[in-house]
Design goal:
about 120 residues, Glutaredoxin, four-stranded mixed β-sheet, about 50% helix, about 15% strand, globular
């Protein structure tokens, strides 16, 4: 009986590990996307300006991605895409990561401040 439970526990741990690995790789894939983004003038979503080669951006990307995954309330804009750089002047961007939603704006990596802009 004990042997059966050991097998079940090991299987569960392996399954969680595989799911975590696949999920992590998918988020890394999303982070590296450099597709041009079109932002609607009446969007209600939070704009997340980042660079895929920015260590600060990478440190929070997974948290922001998974937090927004269910709500689809964040537009991810990789500033390494040349065509996305038009937003630098439009939104007066001076650094990444930067979050903008309505009149709320935050540049940095503090999760509590990011949550204030993105919403809970």
């Amino acid at each position: 009986m004990l042997n059966k439970w050991v097998k079940i526990i090991i299987s569960a741990v392996v399954a969680v590990g595989v799911i975590t690995f696949v999920g992590h790789n998918y988020v890394n894939y999303v982070e590296k996307q450099q597709t041009p983004v079109t932002i609607s003038s009446n969007t209600k979503k939070t704009l997340f300006f980042y660079r895929d080669d920015c260590s600060d951006c990478q440190s929070i990307f997974h948290q922001v991605y998974w937090k927004s995954a269910l709500k689809s309330n964040v537009v991810f804009i990789n500033m390494n895409q040349q065509k996305n750089r038009k937003y630098i002047a439009k939104y007066s961007l001076t650094s990444v990561p930067t979050f903008i939603n309505d009149n709320k704006r935050y540049s940095g990596t503090k999760i509590d401040k990011i949550n204030q802009v993105v919403g809970d």
